[in-house]
């Protein structure tokens, strides 16, 4: 359990604001602001001040088993000293119904905007939330540690009704955190094998991978390359495993490099895959941005698409039918999945069980960028 | 002034939640929730109940001139009856420092995801806000009316510290609303001519348009086409005017069609522009998605790019260097402008003046999709 950062509960801006309140009700406002802050003392503060874990504080304050009587007495004393109030007006207001769903994005800003997936998901999520008068509280974290700090803040302050967890990594610290605080509903977008028992909406990647590899195998491709997403992402790992298995089953030689979803990453990985003799006759990309860039550089290198090399993308944004040849893709309704995620989150808010739900399934959308394997393979 | 919707202040979910609170503190929680609701009576409720405008209520309750004594007395009586409390704990908490900036997006979900601009802007905004412990409260409105309702809700409940207004239209109702409630700081991303005096961050479109037209004119292009964004958007209008003026000044024949930023819109407009004899020898697009699609369909129609036709895009997402030939663009640092918008919003929250600030300027990034005008022009 990481110690909670000091910055969570108090920040300078509050003081700045009350200090500059110079209108005629200035003094009164300052007082109520200070009262507001007092209400923001959380179990994390109590934990820090009493030197025990926040879960121990939770047990102690909620009069539940799990801590010694000595610890309980100590915690209660510290909590009282700090002015912690379990049913203060602030907490009641905050916890009762914020009508907010929290989402933290931890990808770098420029990378996020290169990825149509996330905007499609958020757009679907937001459109559905709007039907229920819910807002999305959005943070752009600076790395994983910061993401966990934000989540702890939300748990402590009851700033959101539920959380959506995206881009789960293997052994993700968010899973452990949310399991420790079951009072904060959370939906993880990942394979159930990664969620540590949290409710999930899973993408049906395994069956999609099998379909994609079979499709290319049926076109005569015996050497298939792949440019995957970042290796630390859980869904990259799931796809890696599925590709290995599907290729082994069909006797296809499978080579994979991982990149970062950007055109640059796609271009570099494509050049590397095509530099080794014998080269693959088809390449599948983990997103459409890398596929578009990979197709572009392959054509620059003199490969005819799909005569010499078939190109296939994952996900199906507008780009895939704006480039020529149009990209064959494993597509799915990401906006629709955003809607579905919102529905599941609102179920969790209402105390309903979710367990394991499915995203919209993938479908193979065959376009002009794939074709039969070339009879002979030459390097370029 | 539109009447405020009933749905704003009370919603069913609160009752659902308190009704299902069956744990041991259930009764207590229900009571605090009800208290919380009472605090949410707003000037809009008072206005509705007393049959006067919300600005009149504001004047009356804040003891300011602008209403008759009879109206003031009536408003005070109604407000008291409804339990309105100007300095209640809830309002103090809400108004003191929400650490939230509100953004309402009113574009259709699938369209939003086709537009890298918005995700880049949000990513920059969010990354900067994160440095200041601020969150983004995001709504996806269903049309303009719904957008105004959401803004009124935020003004009434103090749910955000400040607002960012994007995609301003001509005679935009949001401008009138925010001018009516100066206590809610707002920054409009638009030309100052559209903001009705609100603080703005303007994009430097006029000088960019002049630069783009001059560039093509210098390459010998005498007939320039343009595929603009939706005509109702303020920045489309500003660009339309700038293109007309720049073309007139240089003696260039300028033809413009408007589309909806999607590949489909870009493809259709491109086909139309190329169908009229004599056709343009260069086309400029208001976003990169339409430019990519327009270049694709032009090549499908048999035009060599840039031999027969030069293509130029506005904004410069990753796509522009992932297609071949790479797209010449009028680019700007959108992520950087998102950062700047956040800084301006936080200034407004701190009570500082902003006035008219500039986005990052455009720069011409010359790539392979533009070249000298063809010697002769044939239809295809």
TrEMBL record, chains A, B:
Keyword Nuclease applies: no
Keyword Transcription regulation carried by entry: yes
GO MF: DNA-binding transcription factor activity; transcription cis-regulatory region binding
SMART domains named in the record: HTH_LACI
SUPFAM superfamilies, per database record: lambda repressor-like DNA-binding domains, Periplasmic binding protein-like I
Gene3D superfamilies, A to Z: 3.40.50.2300, lambda repressor-like DNA-binding domains
All residue ranges annotated as the HTH lacI-type domain in the record: 41-95
Keywords: DNA-binding, Transcription, Transcription regulation
Stored InterPro entries: HTH_LacI, LacI/GalR-like_sensor, Lambda_DNA-bd_dom_sf, Peripla_BP_I
Pfam families: LacI (PF00356), Peripla_BP_3 (PF13377)
Protein name in the entry: Transcriptional regulator, LacI family
Phylogenetic lineage: Bacteria, Bacillati, Actinomycetota, Actinomycetes, Bifidobacteriales
């Amino acid at each position: 359990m990481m110690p909670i950062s000091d910055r969570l509960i108090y920040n300078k801006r509050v003081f700045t604001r009350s200090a500059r309140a110079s209108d005629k009700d200035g003094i009164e406002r300052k007082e109520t602001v200070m009262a507001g802050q007092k209400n923001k003392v959380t179990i994390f503060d109590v934990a820090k001040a009493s030197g025990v874990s926040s879960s121990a504080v939770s047990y102690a304050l909620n009069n539940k088993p799990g801590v010694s009587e000595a610890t309980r007495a100590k915690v209660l004393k510290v909590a009282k000293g700090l002015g912690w109030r379990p049913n203060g007006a602030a907490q009641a207001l905050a916890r009762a119904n914020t009508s907010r769903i929290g989402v933290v994005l931890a990808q770098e800003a420029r990378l996020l905007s290169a990825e149509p997936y996330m905007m499609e998901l958020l757009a679907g999520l937001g459109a559905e939330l709007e039907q229920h008068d819910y807002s999305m509280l959005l943070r752009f974290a600076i790395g994983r540690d910061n993401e966990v700090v934000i989540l702890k803040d939300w748990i402590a302050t009851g700033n959101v009704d539920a959380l959506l967890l995206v881009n789960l990594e293997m052994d993700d610290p968010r899973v452990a955190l949310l399991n420790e605080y079951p009072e904060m509903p959370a939906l993880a977008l990942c394979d159930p094998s990664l969620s540590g028992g949290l409710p999930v909406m899973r993408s049906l990647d395994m069956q999609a991978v099998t379909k994609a590899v079979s499709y290319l195998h049926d076109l005569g491709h015996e050497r298939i390359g792949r440019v995957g997403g970042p290796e630390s992402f859980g869904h990259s790992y799931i796809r890696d495993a599925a590709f290995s298995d599907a290729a082994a089953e069909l006797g296809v030689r499978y080579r994979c490099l991982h990149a970062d979803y950007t055109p640059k990453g796609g271009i570099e990985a494509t050049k590397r895959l095509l530099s080794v003799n014998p080269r693959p006759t088809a390449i599948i990309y983990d997103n459409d941005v890398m596929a578009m860039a990979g197709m572009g550089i392959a054509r620059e290198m003199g490969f005819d698409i799909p005569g010499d090399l078939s190109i296939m993308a994952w996900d199906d944004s507008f780009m895939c039918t704006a480039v020529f040849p149009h990209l064959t893709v494993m597509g799915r309704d990401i906006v629709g999945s955003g809607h579905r995620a919102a529905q599941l989150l609102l179920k969790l808010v209402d105390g309903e069980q979710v367990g394991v739900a499915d995203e919209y399934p993938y479908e193979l959308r065959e376009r002009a960028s794939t074709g039969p394997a070339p009879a002979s393979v030459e390097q370029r």
